[in-house]
Amino acid sequence: MLIINWLTSLGRYLQLMGRTFSRPERMRMFFRQYVREMAQLGVDSIGIVLLISFFIGAVICIQIKLNVQSAWMPHWVSGYVTREIMLLEFSSSIMCLILAGKVGSNIASEIGTMRTTQQIDALEIMGVNSASYLILPKVLGMVTMVPLLVVFSTVSGIVGAYATAYVGHIITPTDLTAGMQHDFNQWFFWMGAIKSLFFAFIISSVPAFYGYTVDGGSTEVGKASTDAVVTSSILILFSDLFLTQMLS
User: What gap in Å lies between CA 216 and CA 231, rounded to an integer?
Assistant: First the structure.
């Protein structure tokens, strides 16, 4: 029974995405919505991304220096490990998990409220493709902004590591810089950016599906928002495992 329900939901999701990725009826209105979603979903998330990444970068540097590094290791190990963790996992995967909670719940509750207040039905009556009108700008806005947020996250994490060097005196700036520059592989940056594109699609499309298919009142909107965040997080973790294996 659980498998049948899962397959039914998958089929409805694919049908909704088929309706979503159709040519917008009014390109001028679509572009306006697209810019608004980039600002609402992406730009408004820059603050929390910078704050969390700054402290995570600082904590990683401190933990590696105090608990892992020994006399047998070079002094630049802390900087090297901090850079690799920020590039490979935190700035792309973990940050997208955080965005799934912030942005995903917002999308699901917004579209779910429109469903329960019959605004979506009104759009359908007027002959508007409500799926494309409501969901497509959110999906493209997230796909555009998330790779930029990944860059901001990486830079903020590295700045946090340098803050421990200059303020906390945990490691010297010279050793930290040597670790940051040691054996840098440019592909690691692009790998995180590529993964973030897939994660951005999950963060935007899955909550939109849960909100669009809400059946009930305000209580169901809250439940759909919670289910959207949980499902998005699980899909991000599974796709992270698959993409890391494929891109490495």
Answer: 20
